[in-house]
Amino acid sequence: MSLMSSLPGHGDMPPPDKTAFLLDFDGTLVEIAPTPESVKVQAGLLASLRRLRAKCADAVAVISGRPIEQIDFFLGDVPYAVAGEHGIAVRRSPGGIIHRANLPPVPSAWLAQADALAVEHPGVRIERKKAAVVLHFRGAPDAGPALRDVADGWVASDPRFHVQEAKMAWEIRPAGIDKGHAVRDLMRAAPFAGRYPVFIGDDVTDEDGIRAAVALGGIGLRIPRDFADPAAVRAWLAALSCGGDDTWGA
Q1: How many CB atoms lie within 10 A of CB 37?
Q2: Which CATH topology does 4-101+177-248 take?
Q3: Which family would the database say this protein is a member of (predicted)?
């Protein structure tokens, strides 16, 4: 029995020369931390991803809500491709050009109001991205509904944006660009094109990536439906990267 067939509802994967991995970062490869900068990359993850990339002839990507620069800080040049900000920015190869969607900037009035909300609700953290702003309330859970009301008011006044639910956060970002967009973008070109996409994520922001992978004939896996936690994902990737081709099934 292959490792894939041990997962509920799924059969065998194609061999590694026909498979591509598209992996979320926070909550999937690493555990969620109190702040984005305090996550820990567990021992062995980088080695597993390097081995996996060698087996799959480079077809390994990380697709994250973080900016690409933050993924580089934690993972270096280990993933072949990286998509950041939920698909707004895509780098298709190591050291390659970062392609950014042509999107409207977040209105300055929203950013000023976001900063005021952080003062009004101690523990709220504001994360500014190039085309989005994130209202983190992990440090102030009771503030979540009030922040959502403000965010809903913003997007009601400007339909170019929408509110993306995340774990203990609301991200106000341009409409029409998501992790599914990133999956489709990467799967159009080498080394991903023509392969069986395996997308792994952990929350609602990953559902677009899962749907895109399935629509392309692949599979979408999610914590906790298919894996108990990031440690289980890491163990599975480590086993795949160390095993022979027969580990992958037919």
Answers
A1: 9
A2: Rossmann fold (3.40.50)
A3: Belongs to the trehalose phosphatase family.
